[in-house]
């Protein structure tokens, strides 16, 4: 919203993780406190939610998102309850983001149920799998986005403005500490083996792989060749850049969560991996706001 230049007010931010709330407050100069989404009740015009992905993800537990199972991913159903509790008044737009795993044959029943529940509440929903590379960011990050709108509006994902993918070299640092150099025998032996959640480390060429919450593992988001047959991990700053954040925002957060000693910073990696690519969300907001403005004029 800030980058798009639209006047707006963020009326609340709902997050139970203390460090994530500290990050949000550092970025936006707010004073939010950690809180659970369970039982939350306010009235925004646009409601954005993204339930934890671990129970849908191929890299996670695959426990699913059934409401009765009370997994982390089942928090998606809290959004339904939140809207129900609002009564007659409802958000004009609801946006949900998650991993492609929600479309897998053993998970898609919940995805379809979500559409049915949103229709019951008066929303018309549409979804698309969007890849960050289509919006200028050299990261292979495919995520499912669902946009649900009131008053019979149908969100057309084909109207989103894409951008040519930038060169990954623009996102990489030139002077990187030796602590990022891969020295573990197990990781060295995994280089150039099968990439994916089955294992393996793949050198970054044109783009990184999906930015995850940890880098010092197999698989990760890709490794950077540094010459003489050596490779290094992506730095925390590079991961934030590959999520679409600018350096100013990164350093605000890094000051809030300083690195201790000669180690990497797990908090900064985790929060990058759990975020949504800025440019993808901006493209969606730009089209959503056009629809809202047209409705006001009419």
Automatic annotation (TrEMBL):
Entry-linked Gene3D superfamilies: DNA Methylase, subunit A, domain 2, Vaccinia Virus protein VP39
Keyword Methyltransferase: yes
Keyword S-adenosyl-L-methionine applies: yes
Signal peptide: none
Active site: 53
Pfam families found in the cross-reference section: DNA_methylase
GO biological process, alphabetically ordered: methylation
Uppermost EC category: transferase
GO MF annotation, one: methyltransferase activity
Keywords of the record: Methyltransferase, Restriction system, S-adenosyl-L-methionine, Transferase
Domain of life: Bacteria
Protein's name according to its UniProt entry: Cytosine-specific methyltransferase
Source species: Mammaliicoccus fleurettii
